[in-house]
Specification:
The complex is a heterodimer. Chain A is an all-beta fold. Chain A has one domain: Immunoglobulins (Immunoglobulin-like, Sandwich). Helix content of chain A is 0%, strand content 50%. Chain B is built from no helices and 11 strands. The chains are: A mainly beta, B mainly beta. Chains A and B meet through strand 6 and strand 11 of A and strand 4, strand 5, strand 9 and strand 10 of B.
Chain lengths: 117, 113
């Protein structure tokens, strides 16, 4: 079974600074996808970035980038030039693969990010 | 473009009353559909998923059920709500090729009183 661990319940960053959110996971799959989702106070789940496990190159989306360490099963999210609108809950997730759960997303418990002006 | 609609946005229901939450997807065919629940201050728990019309798989034994009467319609139901059914319910879809990630609806906040 897949598991996702986010060890930082809360994080804080100064506006314009950089912050890194940690995520570790466990899976027996060789082909899987990893995601970071943002959930602002509106509670809409918004896809921030995704990483395909077979790709060694770290994914980037504008100010968001990941540090994907497959051997260590680590998938951290770096937010550069933090903005007030980045304040939200951030969830790390792994897709369950094509095994018994048909590609279901398994989520971590989330990290609450605060951005200080 | 693909969109997902989920309603109602909020719902307050008494214990023992029935429940029906609806989710529809536009702009795609034959999607995988999911129902998740998020308790206050916690992550998302997968409740049901469906890979086709009439095909429902349950991840967690509970007081809820799901149905998929049409390709792009996914319904979450209960015959008698419990207090523990309160939470934030999210519908999501993805294409089978898993190329674009998962898209979530705007969610339904259910309070059972």
């Amino acid at each position: 079974a897949q598991t996702v661990t986010q060890s930082q319940p809360e994080m804080s960053v100064q506006e314009a600074e950089t912050v890194t959110l940690s995520c570790t996971y466990d899976t027996s799959e060789s082909d899987y996808y990893l995601f970071w989702y943002k959930q602002p106070p509106s509670r809409q789940m918004i896809l921030v970035i995704r990483q395909e496990a077979y790709k060694q190159q770290n994914a980037t989306e504008n100010r968001f980038s990941v540090n994907f360490q497959k051997a260590a099963k680590s998938f951290s999210l770096k937010i550069s030039d933090s903005q007030l609108g980045d304040a939200a809950m951030y969830f790390c997730a792994i897709e369950g693969g094509y095994g018994g759960s048909q590609g279901n997303l398994i989520f971590g418990k989330g990290t609450k990010l605060s951005v200080k002006p | 473009s693909q969109t997902i609609h989920q309603w109602p946005a909020t719902l307050v229901q008494p214990v023992g009353s029935p429940l029906s939450l609806e989710c529809t997807v536009e702009g795609t065919s034959n999607p995988n559909l999911y129902w998740y629940r998020q308790a206050a201050g916690r992550g998302l728990q997968l409740l049901f998923y469906s890979v086709g019309i009439g095909q429902i798989s349950s991840e967690v034994p509970q007081n809820l059920s799901a149905s998929r009467p049409q390709d792009r319609q996914f319904i979450l139901s209960s015959k008698k709500l419990l207090l523990s059914d309160s939470g934030f319910y999210l519908c999501a879809w993805t294409v089978r090729e898993r190329t674009d990630g998962y898209t979530f609806g705007s969610g339904t906040r259910l309070t059972v009183v």
